[in-house]
Structures are given as C-alpha cells and as structure tokens.
Fold each of these.
Amino acid sequence: MDKGLPAKREITFETELFGSKTFLIYVEPVFSKAGETIGINYMGMDITDQVRKRERMIKIREEIAVQKAKETELNRTIHITEETMRAKQMLATMSHEIRSPLSGVVSMAEILATTKLDREQRQLLNVMLSSGDLVLQLINDILDLSKVESGVMKLEATKFRPREVVKHVLQTAAASLQKILTLEGNVADDVPIEVIGDVLRIRQILTNLISNAIKFTHEGKVGVKLYVVPEPPFAKEGSQHGSDGSTANQTTTNVPKEETCTSTSQTSSDQRGFHGKKHEGSCQNRSQSEPGTPVMNGKIDVTEEQAELPETTVWIRCDVYDTGIGIPENALPTLFKKYMQVSADHARKYGGTGLGLAICKQLVELMGGRLTVSSRVHCGSTFTFILPYKVSLSCDHSDDSDDPDDLSDMDDHGDSDDDATNGFFQFQPRTLGSLFSSNGSSRTQKLLAHNIGHVNSHKINGFSENYCSFPTSNGQAKEMDLVEDACSVAEALEISSEPECSFSHSPDHDSESAICRGRRHHNDVNGENKVSSIDVSTYSETSREVDVKVKISEPQLPAERQGRSDSGSQSTLNTSQEVSNSISKPKILLVEDNKINVLVTQSMMKQLGHTIDVVNNGVQAVRAVQCRSYDLVLMDVCMPVMDGLQATRLIRSFEETGNWDAAAKAGIERPSPSSDSLQPDCTPPKHIPIIAMTANALSESAEECFANGMDSFVSKPVTFQKLKECLEQYLP
Amino acid sequence: MDFVNLLQRKFIDYSSSLHREGIVDDQFTQLRKLEDENSPHFVMEVASLFFEDCEKLINNMAIALEQKQGVDFKQIDECIHQLKGSSSSIGAMRVKNACIAFRSFSDGQNREGCLRCLQQLSHEYSLLKNKLQTLFRVSVASRCLYVCLVIFCRGNEHAEPFPDVLVFQLEKEIVAAGGSIPRVH
C-alpha cells in the first residue's frame, strides 16, 4: 500500500478442518484516473496442492541426486574392485612366474653350497640362500593370500586324525628348533579319532601359529591344546543352512574384512579387551560371511558321501599357546592385517613377511571358524581357532584298534609319552641335542643355513654357537669350516674358541698370525698374496676405482709381501727356516697378539729400516728366543696363553742360569738344537733388551714391568718417535 | 688442474675435520706417514683390517651380553682390551675413548651399563667407518683424476700440486698394469 505496487505473498493458515492450507494472496492497489489509490483488489488462491507437489518435486530431485551419487560411488567401487581383482590376478600370475626361476636360483645355490668353496664365497652364498628363501617364502605367502581372497581356493574335505596332525606338526617344528624350548601337544579325549576337514590347510594354520610362537618365545614352552567345544554362537547366528551345510556353497568372494576377526562370543576368561571394541563391526560382517561359513563341501565326493552317511558336526577348539614375549594390547587390532607386524623393530629383529596371520585368519574363516588371540606382554600369547569338523559316525572305529596305545605305537616317533590319553606329546630340548650330534655336520649345516633365512635373531646365532663349539674343540678343521660358514658367525666361533684352542692349534695359528692378516685360511701360506688383495678389495667393494687400483698394484706387491712372509714364516718355529737376513742387521722380535698393532708396528719398523720377527704370545716368544738370538725384543704385556711378564721372567731366568729349566717347568719344551741356534751352551747368554709395550692398564705399571725383568717400556699406541728412541737407546 | 686442486683441498679439509672432531688423532697422522711407494694403500689396509676386527669384537660382545645364563664379563673385558689396543694403534680416538668408558662398566659387571656402552661403541665405530671411507674415496678420486690428467697433460709446466711420491707411484701402477706413460721432453 505504501509503495503503491502490487505484491503477492504466500500465507499458510492452519485450519482445523482441512489441516494446513496455503493460499497465494495477490494484492494490487487500484488507482483512480487521477492516480490516487482508491482501494485494493485482492485475490486468493488455494495453492496447497501445488505447494505440496512442489515440495515433493524438490524431495524427488534430492533423492535423484543422492541416487546418482550412490550410483557413481558404486560404479567406482566396482571399477576399483575389478581393477583390484585384475591386479591380484596379475600378481598371482607374476608371483607364480617369478617363483619358478627363483626356485631354480635357490636350488642352484643350494647345490653350489655343497661344492668346495672358500670362506668368502661361502659367506656370499649364505646371503644368497637366505635372501632367496625369504623371497620365496614371501611369494608363497602372497600367492596363498591372493588365492584365498580371490575365492579360487577350494577347500578339501578328507578324513584325517587330529592327534597325528598335531604330533606331526610339533615334530617338524622340534626338528628345526634352535632354542631350548619345550614343545607340547595335548589332544583331549573327547576329540574324535578321525574327523573330516581340509587337513592341508589346517596343518598350514597350525604350522604357522606354532612357528610364530617359537619365533617369539625364547624360553619356556610352546604348546597345542585341542578340545571339543559346544557349537559357538557365531555359527548359529545368520546361518540358514544350519551346521550341516548341505548346500554345496562355493567359496565366496565376500571374505570378511581384516579388521573384524573376533569371535566375541567366546567368553573364555583369557580373551582380552579388544574383542569388545570389535563387537559391532563383527556383527555386521558376520552376516556377510555366514553364507560362506559351512563351506566344507568343495568336493563332489563329499556331498555324495554326505548323502549316504549320517554326519554330525563337531566344533573343535585349538589353542596354540606360548611363554614368549607377548603382544602389546595396542598391537592386537592390527595383528591379523596383512603385512603388519607388531612394530618396525620387531620386523627388523624377527624377520618374517607379516602375511602369516592374515592367511591363517582368512583360511580359518573360510572354513567357517574364528581365529582369536589373547596375550600378555612378557608372559606369552595364546592363539585360538575354532573350526567345525564333520565326523562320519558310521566308520568311526572300524579301522582303529580299541587300544589307544597301539595307535601311538603305530606312529612310532619315539617321543610321545605313553599316557592314558594318546593325545599327549612333549618334545624336550635334549631330544634336540641328539638330533644335532647324531646327524652330523651336514644336517647341521643345512638346518642352520635354512633357518638363517627365516629367523634372524641373535639368539639363533648364540645357540648355534653353543652347539657348534662341540665339533670345534675336536679340532676338526673341516667340520669347523662347514659349521662356521653355515652359521656365518665364523669369527665369533674362532674368537670364542681361540683361547682354549690356540695352544693346540699353534702350528696353524703361528703361520697365520705371522702373515699378519685378518683372513684365516687354515692351510695356505701361499694364499697370502691373494689374501692381501682380497682384504683390500672386499673393503672397497663400493668403490670400483679402488678395485682397479688394487689390481694394478698387486703384481708389484708380491716382491715386497714375499719379503714380509719370509720374515713372518721365520717365526713358524716348529720348522726351522733358513735365515735370509744378513747377520749385520739387528734382529728384532715383536711379541704382540693384536693384528692391527702388529701391522702398524711392523710398518713403522720397516720405515725405520728394520725387518722384524713377529710372534703372538709369551710361549712363542720364549721359543723364538730359544732358537735365535735377538738384539731387541718388543714385548706386549697382555696376551693370551702367556703374558709378557711371565715370558720375560723365563727369558731372564735363562740368562741368569744358562738353562731353560724354568721354561720347561712352565710347559715349554726346548726344541732340539738346530743349525740356526747361534748360542753354544758355554758362552753366557747375552742380556737381551726387552721393552714392554703397555696399554696403560692398571696391571701394567712401570714398576711391575721392571720387577719382571723388563728394561724399559713404551706406552701404546706405538709411534715413530717412541720406536726411534727405543732403537737408538738399545741397539748398538 | 684447478679441479685437482679443488679435490686436494677437499681432501685436506675433510681430513682436518676428522682431526678436529676427534674422530682420529695424531696416531692416524703417523699412519699416513707410513704410506709410500712400497705400501701405497697402507692406511686403507689397516683401516679395513680394523673394521673387520671391530665388527667381530662388537658382535662377540653383543652375543655375550645377551646370554641369559650369565654374562661372561671376562670375555667382554678381553674384547674391550683388544679393541682399545687396535683403536689406539690406528688413532681412532673416539672409539678408544668409548672403550675406556666401557671398561669401567664391564669391571663393575654392570650389564645395563655395558649394553649402553656397546651401543655407544657401535655408534662411534660406524661414524669412524663412514668418515674414513669417505676420506678414502675422496683421496682415491683425486688420485684417479690425477692419473688421467698426468697421462694427457704430461710435460705441462703448470701441473703437480701433488707430491712427487704420488706421481711416481701412480706411474708405477700404470706401467705395472701394462700401460705406458708417454714421455714428452
């Protein structure tokens, strides 16, 4: 009215009789000819229906939009799924393709391992083998997993005996057990003698769980418990087919997602909290997976059989328990996910592909069961799976004898206790001992080499070191080689056994140490030229230039190295070697066990113009002095077998008394006088200057050195200056 | 030649930094002096021997410390002693110091302390190894380069920022490998 313009508005009234009604009101002012507003025209229209229609249209459009969105989403999902399937198919194919030649490589490597190889080659080969094995394992796991997921996996249904399976799996595990663990198996009495199921898959699951348990348990025991349980609720829910599963369901593609794996209905007290979290999720998925549940009938035979024989389903629960490191609670939810391991550290320390549990879970669920875990850190873990098995009632006891003991006797693996229940087995560590020693070194080598690939923990090495030390102390060089190389803790063995063995092995070790090189080739003195170049080239494996350099320089080195080896082999005092040095040069003896110190000192002496003899302990030093007269002795104080102080005492006693009785008393026999002996007994022995090389340890005080007969001492590290001063002072 | 200069300078700088950081000490310098035409790779050889030795000993100690049945501290002590001796001989100062610290824990039979020290030792060893390997690479790279330049620019007045000894050695190496150095007079 104020504006003088027509307007229209919608106004909604609430009426009692007709409900909500909407009117469109149109009002327009009426003007006189003069332009004054005289009045208004107003019209009202009932547009209730139109409004309703309009609203409905809007709603419909919205719905359409939502539908369209859903459609695109679905299309995308289908597309992704298709691509995934294709990719998995390709992966499976590729993996398969990869596997064959890779098996070839590994097989060739294994054959190569049986040929004669030097230590370096053997070490390289071991790396090859373990890497190859790991990759093969990975590929197999991937193939398994993709097979399960793609629904290609067909389940078998064969009769088998649970007790045998358990025993067999445990035995296999025990055979390759590297640690001191007790393996036990317990099958309850109410478990039938024979059941029907997919024995291969069940064995696979058991093996995987047991090997996991062993891997993560360093002491205590690992065990399997098998017993019958009443039909669990998860089977009842949503299963229209009942437990008979008479319809031959093919394996389904809607395998439940990895996040939900739990049988929440298990009320056993040792189940841990995370099940609760997953409860909601698993409810949904259960209905998805249920159609796949009673899938025992992959084979046509079984359905036929089934039609003829009455069968019941028995639910058997299997606990795989251990006293291992346990699983932290926060790792439990992701435990069954693919490629997940408890932590990156775990993966690094324990190895493994991270696929095992995922596969197990898939398999168990495919067979209609559930796989769960409960664990406490540092105490242990228990993996539980429940599966339905068919039992054919009619043929139950026809083949079996009534006497349970006979059954276990037939199997004859000698280890099961003869309990009333034939379902109890135990494998103690001492069984392992006999396995190791009786089967000889080749078995050991294979086992050890085999296991290095799978389990990568220090414990293994430590354990094998304990076992390997037996052959070592027998002094069998060959066996030591094999075992060492297979263990690839070669140096550890040598170091650990050296203190005991070096005395008896001194012939070998003398020549080695005289060569002053790190690599222990037990036999070859001639090999030292190669040894020296191998040394440098293995160091320089990354820089090719150096390789070239080394090769270039090698030919010119032999002359000089030969010189060193001559001086070195002179200290192989069991054989009297010709003295090639001229008499005018002063004879210097270096007594030092540390190879690096020897190298450095020798090099310095060379620069000062002297060649020196080298021995590695007090006993050798005394022998050296017995055989030749030296003008100077540089004596390290701390050495194995006999230290510098005692050696000096013995030498001084000879100088004072003219005889080597004291040395003989200490166990050093006087070698028969050779043409090299420049000291006839009548002349009084010369006083040899003996310089102590001390590392400033508490046990090496100056007073002590002097008290034992040393003339002076130099403190390590040995430098030019110190050596020069020494020489100037004590050499004529 | 400027390039060679650059490399040489790099080498000197890098090796001074090693000294400054305490990774190597004077003993290492002594070792360098032992290189001549008769043992042109001496330092590398000693170093690689040391690396091998060190790894072995560290490994042994790790194994010994993991023994549940009881740690053999005597064995660990021996390992430390060896390592201390070697490291001080080649001038690996930080490794040597780590050994000294380690010793007190092993004397006290303190397993936890030993484990920590072992870790520290491992760390120092890795550091040393990395640095030395880099040093060697730089030195070798510059030598290589120099060989090429020597061959191509023989007779050039403006050559030779390198010591003659090195030239001599390189020439010997090339000849020994069957090559020849064209002499331009």
Amino acid sequence: MATKDNEVEDHRPLVLIHHLPSFKLPLQDRLITHFRLFDSLASPEASSVRALICVGPTPVTADTLDHLPSLRLVVGSSAGLDHVDLAECRRRGIAVTNSGDANSENVADYAVALLLDVLRRVSAADRFVRSGLWPQMGEYPLGCKLGGKRIGIVGLGSIGSEVAKRLVAFGCTVAYNSRNKKPSVLYPYYANVHDLAVNSDVLIVCCALTNETHHIINKDVLTALGREGFIINVGRGALVDEKELVQFLVQGEIGGAGLDVFENEPNVPKELFALDNVVLSPHLAISTPESFEALNEVIIANLKAFFLSKPLLSPFQQE
Amino acid sequence: MDSITVLMTSPMSDYLETQLRDRFNLVKLWTYSSKTDFFKHNSHSIRAVVGNTKIGADAELIDSLPELEIVSSYSVGLDKIDLRKCQEKGIRVTNTPDVLTDDVADVAMGLMLAVTRRVCECDRFVRRGLWPKGNFRLTNKFSGMQVGIVGLDRIGSAIAKRAEAFGCPISYYSRSEKPETNYKYFSNIIDLAVNCQILVVACALTKETHHIINREVIDALGPEGILINIGRGSHIDEPELVSALLEGRLGGAGLDVFENEPEVPEQLFGLENVVLMPHVGSDTVETADAMADLVIKNLEAHFLKKPLLTPVV
C-alpha cells in the first residue's frame, strides 16, 4: 500500500466500542496505543470491523450483529454475558470472551462480606448504634455463627471457587452445583440446586444467567433451604425468583439474604427495606479501581491474541 | 448443689441464668436497689461469682464476700477481675477461652470487609432510595490488603488465618515473637502501623496495653489506613481516634468496643467511613450457649472438687 513520506502507516487493528449512551469504557485511552477505535454502528467502518468491545450491559443482539458483517469477536467487559445473544454469536461463528478472572476476587470478597453482614448483623447493628439505642435498650439480638455452616455454591466457576477458598478458612464446609461435575474438585457435588439446598445452610449464587438458569432459585429451592437458611446473590437478579424470595423473607420462612443484584435494577422491592435480616447492595461487587485495571488487561490480552490468531485468554465458558 | 449461693453480676444471658437457677441458689446483683442493701443480705452466703465484661469482680466486691471461692467469668477477657486479689486470697478464676475465638475473629473480618467495601453505607444508600438517582462510587479492593495484628494469641491467630485466605499479607506485634508462624513480626507497634493498611487490635487489656493505640500509632497508620478494634475500648485513646477520623487523618474504623459502653461518641454517627457494633463479638446463639455451658461446668467441677476446665488463677 503506497504511503506518503511524512505519514506513518497505521498498523493498529480496528475495534468497535459498543456502548449504551450512559456507559463509558473505563481506561479507554489506554487502548488507543494498541487499537484504532470507533463507537457507532452507523459508521462506514462497521462493515469491516472484526472485533468489538461490549461495554457493561450493552446488548449484543442479532440486529447488532446484522450491522457488523465482518465481526468475528465480541469482547465482554464483565463476567456475566446475559446481555449478549450467545446462541446467535455461535451460529455466526463469532467468538465471545468475558472478563475471565479479573473480577473474581472482588466479587468473592463481596459475597463473604454480605454473608458475614447477614449472619452477624453488621449493618443492622451499625444502624442500632447510630440511632443512639444502645444505652436505652442494652442488649442486642444474637446473630448466627458462621463457623461450621454448610455452604452450597451455585456455579463453581472462577468466582465460586474464590468464595469457597475464603469460607473454608472460616471453618465452613463447601458443596456445589454446576452444569457438570468437576473431576479435579474435592467438594461434594449435587446434580441439582434443590438437593444442594437440602444439604446447605447457606446458598451462594455465583453462576451465569442463561435460559437454563433463569429463576434457578425458585420456591422449591427456597423451601428446601428452610427457615434457618440464608441466601447470597452476587450473580444476576434473574437467577432468583425475586417475588418468591421477598415473600419468604417477609413471612420469616427463610433466615435472611444478602443481595447485590435484583431483577429490575435499580429498583429494589420496598418490602425489603423494613427487614433487619437482609443486606442490600447496588450491584457493585466489582466496583474497585483495581478491578478496572485488571479488566483492561484482560480486554487488551484477548484482542491482541485474536488479531495474532492466537488462543483467546478468556473465552466464555458456562459453568 | 442448690444450697450453694452463686452471685450473677448482670443480666448477661437468659440461658445461663436459667441453668444457674436450676443448679444453685442464684442471687442477681441487679435486682437490688443499692450495694449496701445487697451486701447486707448476702455477703456471707455467696461462694461463687459469675461476672462478665460489664461487671466482673473488683477488689470491693471480693473484699465484701468472705466466703467467695471462685469467680467464673462469662468472657475470655479478664480486665474486670482483680486477679491479684483473687490470687492472694486463694480464690479460683475461670474464663471462656476458645469457644468464642471463631465468632470474634469473624466479627473482625466482617468489620474489615464492611469498612473497605462500604457495605453498610451501600445498604443505607439502597434503603434511602438513592440507587435510581445514580450509582454508588468505587470502593477499595479488600483481597491483598496488608493486615497488621496487635496480639497474636488465639483470636489474633484466627483472624490471621482468615485474612490469609483473601491473599492478605499478615504482620503482627506481640509481647514476644512467634517463630512457628510465617507472619512478619514487628517489635514495636509504630513500625507495624507504618507497614500495614488495616490494623486490628486483638490483644488482652492490661496496664501495658491501655491506650496502646494512641495518636502516634493512628498517625503512623495514616489517612488511607483502617483501624479495627475487637479487643477492649480502652485499647484505643478514643478522643484521639474521633478527632483523627473527623480530621481525615485516619481512613476509616470498624469498632465493636468502646471506652465507656454503651456510650459511643456521637461524632462518629455522621461518618460514612466507620462501622459501629454494640460489643457483639461473641454474640451468636451457638457461642453464647457454649460460653454458658463452660461457666456451669467450671462451677460444678469446683464444687465437686474436680479439676477446673479453664482456670486462669
């Protein structure tokens, strides 16, 4: 290709930043050393671009893909990819990557934080002290011991494994449910979530949201978990039948819950606001500056591998 | 043994009260309108005292109970008991170690996570209906933070084991080095504070450790540092702590204990970088019962002239 003497040939591969107006890709300026970027499906470059970065929960649908006839790679910026039409990508031969392990520690930390808070009433106790009630009321209700609890992990992927590792140090036992049993894992496996719930004191939901896992935590599972049982959700809101969960909590049919995600964010069922055995969080299990750095590295690594025809770093695996 | 009179100093546990009433002649200190009244009626019959972190057995009480043989504390901490006087008079003392170690360590971890990840603040944010108006901000990653522990006995060690599972490098300051651990030892507390991001107080309260966390230590920990206290309120110079937090010289604090419980400095109530709990380190159903059982077993062993289970003196 002929170039003028004073022009430097731009060898940077072209990448689409696919984002909803309200979502920006953190650290985007770091990418331009490696890639040429554009961000509109209406741009003429849409017809030739081979890779896109999907920012946050921006949907990637069949319609999106229709605008991108040369696309061969979708790079997700989260662990969850329920906003990407994975079946459609598979049909068109488009590979999909997620954030791999970049956020796993943060999410695992947060799951344990929520569990400790629910069992030992950290937020409720903090409210109690701040309200000035301690001198008046003296004693405060007892919490529940974490040590010895049977933890049931729903989805033993990167996040679930980090959760398990942490809780074992607290003297808990761990069992899990995943799509398939993992031969290298020593924790007991249950083929379905109901059986896991029967044998657990706490369920921690860490799996991906797909058609199969929608409402995987339903009335049947909550009943099996029981009055003394607790549930922590750091996956996606729709993994849990939220209406049922609210009923169970309001009626005292379950011990308590720690929830970072909801079916209709940012809306949270108001019945939960009056409960002391519930801890609520606005979907920020990954929200630390370190997680954005780590995420950036994963995104760049996946794109570089793709353009060099090397194996991808974090192709999406369903657990 | 219902001819044996036992004094319970404060309403620490319904379960324990019932067990004591069933086995002994129970006298409850808080049901008397005055000390004089209490001493007039009971001083010569009481052979055992069951105390806790609020009211133990100080010199005045011990001196006024000539028949006292044993103090069985519903706590592991002994700062409310005049141990020297007990030793002089041949009075036995027992406490409740081990059964509460895990629960107290769990609260320390709960506080560390709650302060760094702003869990309570987030919960408030959601309950106030603020989420639809905009996202919460970033918080700091907990895994990998450097944790410094003051006092590496049972509780300190249990905290270290848990924090290690989060990839936190562990360092400590203790009366003596513990070479059997892999943790980094600092022979003075300022060096420990300089070299960690989260400082946890887990030692016993003695004359030496009173206000061990003073202005110098707080300044060494610094504006990004976090202080966690699951020991005793008097480990920390509380007014210094409050001003450091108000002035931004300390990054945050998680406190389960205070110098003058149940009073808590009100200036803390408006701060988002603190988490406050009402001395609940060992307060789970399971542990409360286990502690009560240990108190009872120690008393029974003593009066049956058998070896005490968890003697201190």
